[in-house]
């Protein structure tokens, strides 16, 4: 009989560190969170942390990268099922955040982490890389929607993607500052309004 593996894989360890880091960041703040606290929250030693990441900043970059990769896969899966923009937005509204990665479950923590990394100028190119990946995803969704509806629209998908992402990040920041007047669905409501105004209507 084959032996049952009891040691976690590298991906398992990273996922547990991501989950633990999110909890510690929310409790202690990103700046105040220590590597020791993150490792302990994950049930690992400090050495286990350093076998995966060289620093807290590297962990944060990895979390942001993982979030973008998962977001792209998730949105492309939804697009494959709903090439109609109204249906796509409706699917986003009903998406179960509890099954997402830590930053998907907590958009505010995602924004805080972006701002934290952006404070270091040398790290900004890494953020730019992920921003471009997000922008391309949205541009692909806009272009696919236009084609599926048989529209030869004059809209510029890359520019529309920039507008959409600016709205998304803006509403995240507004909700961080003033959650009482910024409902959780503000971004999707804005996208629905934008869709109606630009003629990106269902076929």
Task: Report on the architecture of this protein.
The chain is mostly helical and 203 residues long. The chain has two domains: 9-54, Arc Repressor Mutant, subunit A, CATH 1.10.10; 55-198, Orthogonal Bundle (Tetracycline Repressor, domain 2), CATH 1.10.357. Helices cover 70% and strands 0% of the residues. The chain is built from ten helices and no strands. It has helices spanning 10-28, 35-42, 46-50, 56-81, 85-93, 102-105, 107-118, 124-148, 157-177, 186-198. It is elongated and about 55 Å long. Residues 1-7 have low confidence and may be disordered. It comes from Bradyrhizobium diazoefficiens (strain JCM 10833 / BCRC 13528 / IAM 13628 / NBRC 14792 / USDA 110). InterPro entries: Homeodomain-like_sf (IPR009057), HTH-type_TetR-like_transc_reg (IPR050109), HTH_TetR (IPR001647), Tet_transcr_reg_TetR-rel_C_sf (IPR036271), TetR_C_31 (IPR041583). This is Transcriptional regulatory protein.
Give a brief rundown of this model.
It comes from Bradyrhizobium diazoefficiens (strain JCM 10833 / BCRC 13528 / IAM 13628 / NBRC 14792 / USDA 110). The chain contains ten helices and no strands.
Give descriptors for this structure:
203 residues; mainly alpha; Arc Repressor Mutant, subunit A; Tetracycline Repressor, domain 2; 10 helices; disordered N terminus; Homeodomain-like_sf; transcription cis-regulatory region binding; DNA-binding transcription factor activity
């Amino acid at each position: 009989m084959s032996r049952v593996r009891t040691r976690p894989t590298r991906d398992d360890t990273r996922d547990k560190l991501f989950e633990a880091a999110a909890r510690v960041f929310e409790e202690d703040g990103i700046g105040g969170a220590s590597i020791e606290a993150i490792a302990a929250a994950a049930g690992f030693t400090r050495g286990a942390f350093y076998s995966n990441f060289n620093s807290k900043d590297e962990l944060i970059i990895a979390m942001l990268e993982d979030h973008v990769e998962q977001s792209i896969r998730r949105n492309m899966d939804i697009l494959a099922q709903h090439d109609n923009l109204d249906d796509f937005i409706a699917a986003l509204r009903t998406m179960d955040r509890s099954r997402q990665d830590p930053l998907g479950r907590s958009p505010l923590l995602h924004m805080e982490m972006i701002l934290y990394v952006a404070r270091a100028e040398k790290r900004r190119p890494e953020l730019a890389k992920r921003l471009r990946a997000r922008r391309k995803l949205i541009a692909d969704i806009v272009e696919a929607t236009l084609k599926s509806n048989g529209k030869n629209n004059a809209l510029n998908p890359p520019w529309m993607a920039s507008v959409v992402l600016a709205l998304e990040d803006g509403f995240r920041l507004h909700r961080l500052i003033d959650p009482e007047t910024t409902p959780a669905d503000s971004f999707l409501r804005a996208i629905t309004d934008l869709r109606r105004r630009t003629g990106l209507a269902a076929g």
